[in-house]
Design goal:
alpha+beta, 61% helix, 5 helices, 133 residues
């Protein structure tokens, strides 16, 4: 009679793998419940731990299995954004940046110039109409 392969603790290999998977799943669900998670990504040949917060997209079992084997890569822009967010958090700059933030920026300036040009046109038009009368 054939015997099932067992691990050192006496459980079968499949049962051990299933227990490990369920433990990882519980850990992921706990992190998702708190809205935070950590993952490792590869950037410029180095592994970097990335902390995430906020709602996370739920993955199907197939997506989870596929993601276990792949190394995630991150773009330079994403890495820069993560570094900037980390720098702001460690130096507590969020409040100061909010205080000094310019309202509108480029779009606000363009809108102001459009309103000024329209107002100038209306004044010239009114002056021409008064002159004709």
């Amino acid at each position: 009679m054939a015997t099932k392969p067992t691990s050192s603790d006496g459980t079968s290999g499949v049962a051990s793998a299933l227990a490990t998977f369920l433990q990882k799943k519980r850990t992921v669900e706990e992190k998702r419940a708190f809205g935070t998670g950590a993952s490792q990504v590869e950037f410029a040949g180095q592994k970097i731990a990335v902390e995430t917060s906020g709602p996370t997209k739920r993955k199907s079992l197939d997506e989870i299995v596929k993601s276990l084997g792949k190394k995630k890569k991150i773009s330079t822009l994403d890495k820069s954004r993560l570094d900037w967010d980390k720098f702001k958090a460690t130096n507590e700059l969020d409040d100061e940046l909010e205080r000094h933030k310019k309202t509108g920026g480029y779009i606000g300036k363009v809108q102001f110039l459009q309103r000024a040009n329209l107002r100038e046109y209306e004044l010239e038009r009114d002056a021409r109409q008064r002159k004709r009368r």
